[in-house]
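Table S5 (text form). Sequence records supplied for joint modeling of the two-component complex.
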Amino acid sequence: DAMVIQNPRYQVTQFGKPVTLSCSQTLNHNVMYWYQQKSSQAPKLLFHYYDKDFNNEADTPDNFQSRRPNTSFCFLDIRSPGLGDAAMYLCATSVSRGQGARDTQYFGPGTRLTVL
Amino acid sequence: AQSVSQHNHHVILSEAASLELGCNYSYGGTVNLFWYVQYPGQHLQLLLKYFSGDPLVKGIKGFEAEFIKSKFSFNLRKPSVQWSDTAEYFCAVGPYNQGGKLIFGQGTELSVKP
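The corresponding structure-token record, covering 230 residues in total, follows.
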């Protein structure tokens, strides 16, 4: 089945130690999103790729970076994780036909990050 | 600032009870509206969506939602819930012309007692 896959499902890292989360998709969607969801809070968009174009949200900390080497894969890099970065990280994809298009996002299962 | 508010954090119902979950948003422009559901241990799944046309939309598993533009609301309803509806429900708003961005509410946890 076509899907959005996130690896690992659980990640434990140490304070300040860089970590990379992975997302892959078999849907061939041109847009990929990364959301952060802290406990009992709404998912919050960090950034997204529209094809190869990176779009950062204004309030996303510089500590968070992303790479999209090809259509299928997208990575979230946290350069120096702090305790406040512990959260569920959700990857989503959509097929967008342009600004204002009526896109539905498809979500992966998420990676739960713990920072010790 | 754009925001989405879900009125209830946790709702507990008995099977066969009717459900209504409230969702209000603050954004003055055109929006796309969604309800997503997350069953225990599973990922977010689309329940239903509204883009335009009939403001009453029907989704999977007997759910429906009504868009009331004047109230900036998109409430979710189901006439008779089942134990299998136990899940977390998220309302999300996609402002038009913002690259497909979604703004989520903080979610409502629904527990259905058998």
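Note: Chain A has a mean pLDDT of 91.
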